[in-house]
Design goal:
Radius of gyration: 13 Å
Number of helices: 4
Order of helices and strands: HHHH
Amino acid sequence: MIYRTLSKLQAAKIFGVDRGTLYSWERHGFPVQRPARRGRPAGIDFESALTWFLDREADRGVSDEGLEILEQAIRERKERCYGREK
């Protein structure tokens, strides 16, 4: 199955956190696409979210090598959970 955007539950699973953490991240700039209509789920673009996460980790002092390891681990988790996006 191919997802153009992720739900918060899917994003939480990929990033290895709970949804509460995503809500906290959202207050700090985590990119979430607001739904056009109330009651619809928010969408999260994986690449934008990954970029935000890696920039945040870099600001926290994670080395370039550490960032590469994190990025690879997150991409592998996404592929394992939801398949490769085409």
